Amino acid sequence: MLAAIDIGNTNIVVGVFDGEKLVSDFRVSTRHTATSDEYAFLLDGLFRISGVDFEGIDGACMCSVVPPLTEVFETLVERYFHCPLVQVGPGIRTGISISYEAPKDVGADRVVNALAANERFGTDVIIVDFGTATTFDAVTGAGEYLGGVIVPGVTVSLEALFARTAKLPRVEITRPEGVIGRSTVHSIQSGAYYGYLSVVDGLVVRMREEMTPPVKALATGGLASMLCAESQVIDEVDHNLTLRGLRLIWEKNR
């Protein structure tokens, strides 16, 4: 079985594949000071709940945008999985060509998502990833990463609003009953939900104008389902897009 590991700024997502089938996936908080032993202890419990044993892992593929944790998980794979590790980075075959002024500046997770979306659709595609930052990536049907857009994530924006204002409260991210807020909490929730929905729809429409039709739009990330429920442009939501991309990269490099 393959362990696919996506290390992000807010969460670490781990999936276990048996062949092409994703049999289990877990999402844990990113802790920059945690050790490989601490993460191994946590993952061991989650694996066992799902009926998976560390000894059953015979390969691992990882992408990371958190340098302090990259080595932590390299050690975890070596010490506890005892298996080969493919880490997304320079020299790794991805099948995606990068048309970016500085190709190394493209986050590993964005390349992985580009591969998964390209394999899925085979046409031009826009990937919207709701993470710490909300990213928009444009990929051609030929597998060329054109570039994208980066905006502050929903949670980051709300935390900044709470931290920089004296009277506005911290609120839960949820879909309000209507756009026009009848209270301060309702108004903030409306701004977060409908504001980001408008950002997504507006940017996807503008990006499509610079790409070759037909252009699919695919959303991923923890908040994708809620924030895209009323989107007029998102074609599909796939929470495990990055994990599926990691499996494809493993197959290309094993």
Topology readout:
Blueprint: E1 2-7, E2 11-18, E3 21-29, H1 36-49, E4 59-64, H2 67-81, E5 85-87, E6 97-98, H3 108-121, E7 124-130, E8 133-139, E9 144-152, H4 154-164, H5 184-208, E10 215-221, H6 224-227, E11 236-237, H7 241-253
Parallel strand pairs: 1-4, 4-5, 6-9, 7-10, 10-11
Antiparallel strand pairs: 1-2, 2-3, 7-8, 8-9
Notable features of this structure?
254 residues; alpha/beta; Nucleotidyltransferase, domain 5; six-stranded mixed β-sheet; five-stranded mixed β-sheet
What does this structure look like?
The protein has 254 residues and is of the alpha/beta class. It folds into two domains: 2-87, ATPase, nucleotide binding domain (Nucleotidyltransferase, domain 5), CATH 3.30.420; 97-246, 2-Layer Sandwich (Nucleotidyltransferase, domain 5). The protein contains seven helices and eleven strands. The chain has helices at residues 36-49, 67-81, 108-121, 154-164, 184-208, 224-227, 241-253; strands spanning 2-7, 11-18, 21-29, 59-64, 85-87, 97-98, 124-130, 133-139, 144-152, 215-221, 236-237. The strands form two sheets. Strands 6-9-8-7-10-11 form a six-stranded mixed β-sheet. Helix 1 packs across helix 2 and helix 3 (108-121) packs across helix 7 (241-253). The longest helix has 25 residues, at 184-208. The mean pLDDT is 95.
